[in-house]
Amino acid sequence: xxxxxxxxxxxxxxxxxxxxxxxxxxxxxxxxxxxxxxxxxxxxxxxxxxxxxxxxxxxxxxxxxxxxxxxxxxxxxxxxxxxxxxxxxxxxxxxxxxxxxxxxxxxxx
Length: 109
What we know:
The protein is mainly alpha-helical.
């Protein structure tokens, strides 16, 4: 009976991680659309894909697994996932993964 419970917990972990990854991608999608199709003179900014997609996807996974650990009472693992999430947030701010294209300069240019 214990093996079955461990298997179900493992499957639940995979499902939660996949849902977190999907949520991260869904949050990232509007910024990606603006960055890829709204650039200056139709030019795409691929940094939105190379930096933004991994940060948001891994952030979604870390948040979902951290929440699962909190629900199951695994405080140390939840704290570890919180640290990973904080590191990804710092990385995201450093690379400005959600900035999108720069605004048009108007009459200043």
